Amino acid sequence: MLGRMSTTFEIPTLHTDRLMLRAFRATDLEAVAAMQANPEVRRFLGGNLLSRAESWSLMERVLGQWALRGYGMFAVEVEGRCAGWAGVLHPLEWPEPELAYSLDQPFWGRGIATEAVRAARAWAFARLDVTRLASFIMPENARSARVAQKLGAVRDGTTTIRGFAVDWWVHRK
Fold first, then answer.
1. Three-state SS at 75
2. The predicted structure's pLDDT at residue 144
3. CATH, range 15-130
């Protein structure tokens, strides 16, 4: 029999006018898998399409960051459906915590990313001991750069993340 982890942690739920930002649930798998199998969505997330099993592992990693760091990515729920995620991503090799976000294609162009990121950023600045967060955005990802700009982030150079050249956008408290 496998042992059970005894550590507990809490992922808050945030509400905006149209959205709920919450912990990922097992029932989000189909939506996440569909999103991760879409070439247009994956274009700026490394390019490789993810299988259903890889999408499950992605959700596990997202939840694990909450346990290990006390912060992480929220599932963005729109109209009762998981539409993507927004929150603070901080893999070990990242130079600093990232205010990261991604939505499934049917939710693009509706201001949902801006609304979700604004809520996640406000939570992070209120709860975490940080005065800035980065957003690492591929230069050709104009949609994501517009979200960062709308939220007042400033482009502050470039770096390489997992072999990809990215613009380094800075959000200040």
1. strand
2. 94
3. 3.40.630.30
